[in-house]
Amino acid sequence: MTNYTKLPAVLLLADGTVFHGKAAGKIGTTTGEICFNTGMTGYQEIFTDPSYFGQIMVTTNSHIGNYGIHKEEIESGSIKIAGLVCKNYNILYSRKEATESIQDYFQNDNLVAISDIDTRALVRHIRDKGAMNAIISSEITDLETLKSMLAEVPSMEGLELSSQVSTKEAYYYGSPEASLKVAVLDLGIKKNILRNFDDRDIYAKVFPARTTFAEMEEFAPNGYFISNGPGDPGAMPYAVDTFKEILAADKPAFGICLGHQLLAEANGIGTMKMFNGHRGLNHPVKNVIKDHCEVTSQNHGFGVIPDEVRASDKVEITHVNLNDQSIEGIRVKGKPAFSVQYHPESSPGPHDSRYLFDDFVDLMKGKLSW
Predict the structure, then answer these.
(1) Residue 308 lies in a domain
(2) pLDDT tens by residue, 156-181
């Protein structure tokens, strides 16, 4: 196990609030937009979710690292969060299947973290003041220096990040003998989405973020999937244009999270940066088409503008968040295209929404329409 010394560390928020704690992970300095996740488990999946790229994660569960790191549970090839803030940082772990400690994992992936923080007080502060930029340092303690560094960090609003986390080369997932083929536009896809496709006899070809519709059509897919990912959907005209072409060709399409926001943009509906966003494993959502509720896994800091969705003659609402009435799902009238704001692949999280993958299969097979 890598040596671990609890050196002093500092967390500074953009509004000037300071928290003092202990160094964890790599000794260094990191910046990003600070946010919190309410999940009580699944820290490894959260760390490797590309949708968190550029963000400092505050975990609300009091113990992080206690069940170690298991390589089979990663959602991408590396840690994607910009930094971690936690209360109790557990280097010793209890799970037999784990292959390394969280400290080894963070040091190997160069992640800077801070522990021994009153995360309840921090989360309450962020909840009331909203998401904002922050800086963690275990090598610099001078607050004026940290303030100067933090002032140079750009706002998440207006940032295009998907092309930074997307695959650089197209690749395949699943069996070439599968009954269906899906073209996946990778804007920051999670591996469990691809596993769900493979489980449903779908052969996927995963394309880089800036791939054109014409290039994906060469794969002759039965449908298109637009993935989750980080950044501002309003800064992604290239992906909006691609979605417009998919719709114009009347191809079956399914979008998750960022893909949901881009489907809205492709239909003239604006998106917005949320005050805090939704991040956790316990968000109640009502399917207004089937009249039932599901508990969902969510991770997004942007959303579609509800009034514009309701005023649109191009889409209809399929899902609504029961906490704040935000729009969690839409489908395009007269087109085989739909999307949801949450994660039906739910890794980590509940499996209430896995039926959406089955709906996509039925849509591609011509068994579902609206």
Answers:
(1) yes
(2) 999 999 999 999 999 999 999 999 99
Whether 110 and 173 map to the same domain: the answer is no
CB contact set of 172 (below 8 Å; sequence gap of 6+): 203, 204, 205, 206
Residues 305, 309, 312: CA angle, nearest 5 degrees: 135
Q: Is 299 annotated as a binding residue?
A: yes
Residue 348 has pLDDT above 90, yes or no: no
Residues annotated as catalytic (active site), given as ranges: 257, 343, 345
Q: Which two tokens stand for residue 75?
A: 């959602």
**Which of 25, 128, 35 shows the shortest CA–CA distance to 69?**
25
CA nearest 125: which of 35, 43, 31? 35
Same domain, 169 and 72: no
Tell whether residue 229 is among the known ligand binding residues: yes
Q: What is the pLDDT of residues 92-122, one digit of tens each?
A: 999 999 999 999 999 999 999 999 999 999 9
Annotated ligand binding at 11? The verdict is no
Tens of pLDDT, residue by residue over 201-232, are: 999 999 999 999 999 999 999 999 999 999 99
Cβ proximity of 103 and 4 under 8 Å: yes
**156 lies in some domain:** no
Taking the C-alpha atoms of residue 138 and residue 19, their distance in angstroms, rounded to an integer, is 12
Q: Do the annotations mark residue 301 as ligand-binding?
A: yes
